[in-house]
Amino acid sequence: MAVVIFFGSAVVADLKPCYNRASRLKGCPMLLAVEDLEQDEKGALWLNKALPYIGGGVLVPDPANQPLVVPARSGQANGTASIVLEAQSDAWEQILSLIKTQDTDDDPDVTARLLVQLYDFAHAERQLQNRPIPATHVFGSQLNPFFLDEEFAVPLLLHPQQLVRADFINPSSAGDANVFVSNGTIRAHGRAISYDDKLKKLLTDERNRMECLCPYWMVSDSNIPDRDNVPGIQLAAGAVRQIMPFFNKRPDLTFLITSVLATAISTGQRGDTEGQVAFEIFTPGDNQAIQNQPVTINCGAGNAMFPHRLHTPLAIAPKDQFTVYATNLITDATTDFFLTFFGVGILSNPADTGMWKTTGKYTKGY
Amino acid sequence: MIGVQELITKVGDRWIPNLSSKAVIPYSATFDIQNPLPVHINAVGVPTPPYPITWPRLNLEGGMEAGELVFEDATDTTALADWNVLFTDSNRRYMNFPCHVRTICGTAQLPGIIRQPLWGPGSQRLETTLIKNAGAAVDVRMYFNGLAYSMRPGDQYKWVRERRNKAIWAANFCHPYWLTIDQNVELGASITENNFDIKIGENLELFSVAAVSDFDFAYEVSEPTLGQTIMNGKIAASAGIGDARYPTIFDTPLLLPVGSRLRITLDNLAASRNRVFITFQGRKLLVPLKDVPPSIWDIDTLYPPPSSWRIQKEGRKS
């Protein structure tokens, strides 16, 4: 059994060890936050009147105390189940963290292979991923949530009563997944907006921004064999270099990769054994390697709880494709390898962007 | 580190990507060896030849800023790795003595952060000496993670070029430095009051401290020449010091001028022999203090912090 939760919180935990102190003290750069005190024309300080109506919150599916049961795969058919999260009718919610917990009795193979596909219903059922993504690359835990912070991502703003749907897919035959989901949010009630002109403007700006920006996940176009639509690659035993193609099919989305997440499951044993894989990433277009030697997943990839952050985003243009070469370092067993890139999707008409005008690469045809 | 917000430009009501991001890409640099990784460290007592790391030269105006150290020990496991590292290049030494790997390197999930990024022009070689502390030979991997520049002289990527020029300029005045006790320390069983003095031969600014030991110990750091101490008593390591993944960060950098001494007092809290490795991370100032440009003191200008830090300085956006 598995449960997923989405979280937003006023305090964002550490992204990197060296930033502990500042991020703990100052919280995250949430746009809906307001100053505790405001100053009037005479210089006197007053408690911000909007403050009581704004705060950290949790957005959970209904009912939240029951796990979502995602049935085990039967034959070729993956088990599927969906949850819907709805913003309150009188509030705006900015999702800042994603959390999932699963029943402790769930088989490790189920937990490792569980997939999720997120849809944002405010924007014509906007898909936040190119394909279903391993849930461990989307949702962190209650102790280490996956943060949608401004440095590496963008928060997800929900209008009142806006829906987010999470479709869970269980491609494992080892058992059901029992999932609890929660989102950490900053919640601004409608009354606060009427109190505070600045907040009203912030919300307008943020709404405009969310028309263009969204958190985005991308996985490979290759599939695990003998499984229905499970993105990943099955690596043969021994050091055989295999290719994983990545293709940004969308003509309207530029993808800035900020984080690398990976899971390796050695199929020689039960699915709870972490495999060892080395991989090489090549940039689109000029096919430039971004490492001088293959990087192992322990040195070059993380998971939703501890994502591996790149030092500068890697830009993937619309219709760009790039490749990753993966090598199984285990000599006596095949390994299922799941590699996910996370970052910010920039939605725009390519003709609007200086990017294409500069290169001339994409100007034609738009 | 460059945040994603710096690569998005607002034009009217739209947000567009910044093409110049193609001129700076994430990069991982490791040992340049012909054979596949991992590299081999000989057993204790048997010297291992140094392994070079060549900084990438992706284009004419290349170079790399390394901001993280990660490693993996395939034999002893990463959590129990027990070997030391020494970085040098043709004219610089980045450590006073080889440092324990777990006090400077982390993993991809929790990397060891280099607060003053290590700048290297394209094709520069860094010599890495790996020394086993105990036990048999091991196979290891180690990477510098950071960002690499890939520009040609005619490219118009103004902000990328300015950032690269700033990195080159800053490297004339400082470079990262790791300071450790300049001998291998093994405390006797239940012995208290071991004093280790480190003579400071250059101007240092320290940002954090990390330690690894066999068992718990208590420590105190003081500067006897100036009569300064940074704590009012000994602190148990288990309560007051982390490793490279969770280092203890000083609230304000600790400046050690040339000629000073750093005294580390260690008490063994265990009833058996206890090896202790303490490493301070910071930077070495290459010119007299009076000649250091003021902007160097603001390390944020060299290593942009998360936006939460900027908010602390500038006030929240609202």
Low-confidence stretches of chain B: 304-318
Q: How many DSSP-defined strands of chain A? A: 23
Based on CA inertia axes, which overall geometry of chain A fits?
globular
Shape verdict of chain B: globular
Number of distinct helices of chain B: 4
The counted number of beta strands of chain B is: 21
Q: What is the helix/strand order of chain B?
A: EEEEEEEEEEEHEEEEEEEHEEEHH
Order of helices and strands of chain A: EHEEEEEEHEEEEEEEHHEEEEEEHEEEH
Average pLDDT of chain B works out at: 86
By secondary-structure content and strand pairing, the structural class of chain B works out as: mainly beta
Distance separating the two termini of chain B: 25 Å
Please give the count of helices of chain A: 6
Average pLDDT score of chain A: 80
Query: Which percent bin holds the helix content of chain B?
Result: under 10%
- Structural classification of chain A: mainly beta
Percentage of residues in DSSP E strands of chain A? 35-45%
Report the radius of gyration of chain A as a whole number of Å.
21 Å
Strand content of chain B: 35-45%
Secondary structure layout:
The complex is a heterodimer of chains A (366) and B (318).
Chain A: E1 2-8, H1 20-26, E2 37-39, E3 45-47, E4 54-59, E5 68-70, E6 79-86, E7 91-102, H2 108-113, E8 115-120, E9 126-127, E10 133-134, E11 146-147, E12 156-158, E13 163-170, E14 177-189, H3 190-195, H4 197-212, E15 213-219, E16 233-235, E17 241-247, E18 253-266, E19 277-281, E20 295-296, H5 297-300, E21 308-316, E22 321-328, E23 335-347, H6 354-359
Chain B: E1 8-11, E2 14-17, E3 24-29, E4 39-41, E5 51-54, E6 64-73, E7 83-88, E8 99-100, E9 112-120, E10 125-132, E11 138-149, H1 158-171, E12 174-180, E13 185-187, E14 194-199, E15 203-213, E16 217-223, E17 228-229, E18 235-236, H2 237-240, E19 248-256, E20 261-268, E21 274-285, H3 294-297, H4 307-314
Antiparallel strand pairs in B: 1-2, 3-11, 4-11, 5-10, 6-9, 6-11, 7-8, 7-10, 12-21, 13-21, 14-20, 15-19, 15-21, 16-17, 16-18, 16-20
